[in-house]
Amino acid sequence: MNWNIFGDKNLKEKLKKQLKKLNWEVDFNIVLGLLKPTISVKTKIAKEKIKIGKSKFGGLPDLPKETKWPSLNGFPFAFIGQINLEEIKFDIENKLPKKGILYFFFSTNQTDYQSEPFNKIHKVLYFNENVDDLKTQDYPINYNDLAKFKECIIEYSEHYSLPSYQNYQIIENGFSDEDENLLFEANELICEITGAKQDIGHQILGNANAVQGDVSYWWANQNYNLENEINEKKKTEIHKNEKEIILLLQIDMLDENPEFSKFGASGGIYFGIKKQDLENGNFENTKFVIQNS
């Protein structure tokens, strides 16, 4: 396998060596092929105000002055955080824009989840201009108090991830039941070596660490009404879409620093994006899934 020269070769070699010790029934080269560079994200409670434009979870967004706070049906979305892309040094495959800020919002209005498609109950904004044009916005008047998350400092580190056990890549590569069980052990081993949080954890890129088996399928079928029968043609389209969508950001709702679980969620939030859209810097059609544990 050809590793990018910008990665930590010692870390990668250690991962390969330790993962190979597991009793895989599938060809180990397949396992290595599914191991993806990932950016782990850790939080620390901010002791003082974070500078405008810096990466953070929680608090208030630093948005362009004329930007309208994302909302749906009269209810403003919750602000999860902002990622300053210039601060990221572990994008080994060079998938992200080199500069700019990504902002992540989602609905905490429970009725939206019953009546609206998932592509409408979240928003990702991208800003790539002068930081001097940013202003820290106040919460809208009818903002949900349970979504006023604590402002936290973000730290990035190099990490790697394997797909979840129900992901299409696992199915396509013929993983046995024993191999699927080993994925949980492998994930713990990877986290132990890289220092990332086990279980869900926050991360950018790589394979999503799903709470309920997989997220790619749910990203891919958001164009369809799940109350109607999905025929073979639609199944083929969904399967094709699965391969085109990658993880943009994974949020661990059990992180106690920003208190993400205050509004009632206890699992993970997953933002996905089509590879082509990411290459083009187009964040208008991102995907969204929330899974409770």
Explain the overall architecture.
The protein has helices at residues 9-20, 28-34, 110-115, 168-172, 177-194, 216-220, 232-244, 275-279, and strands at residues 36-45, 56-57, 62-64, 71-72, 75-76, 78-84, 101-106, 122-127, 134-136, 152-161, 202-204, 245-252, 268-274, 287-291. It is globular. Helix content is 24%, strand content 25%. With 293 residues, the protein is an alpha+beta fold. Mean pLDDT is 90; it is low at 1-6.
Please summarize what this structure is.
Helices cover 24% and strands 25% of the residues.
The end-to-end span amounts to 35 Å
What pattern of helices and strands is seen along the backbone?
A: HHEEEEEEEHEEEHHEHHEEHE
Number of helices: 8
Largest sheet: 7 strands, antiparallel
Helix-residue proportion: 10-25%
Question: What is the approximate shape?
Answer: globular
Beta-strand share of residues: 25-35%
- Structural class call reads alpha+beta
Which strand order does the major sheet show? Answer: 8-7-6-2-10-1-11
Radius of gyration: 19 Å
Low-confidence stretches: 1-6
How many beta-strand elements?
A: 14
Task: Indicate the mean pLDDT.
Answer: 90
Topology:
Blueprint: H1 9-20, H2 28-34, E1 36-45, E2 56-57, E3 62-64, E4 71-72, E5 75-76, E6 78-84, E7 101-106, H3 110-115, E8 122-127, E9 134-136, E10 152-161, H4 168-172, H5 177-194, E11 202-204, H6 216-220, H7 232-244, E12 245-252, E13 268-274, H8 275-279, E14 287-291
Antiparallel strand pairs: 1-10, 1-11, 2-6, 2-10, 3-9, 4-5, 6-7, 7-8, 12-13, 13-14
Helix pairs in contact: 1-5
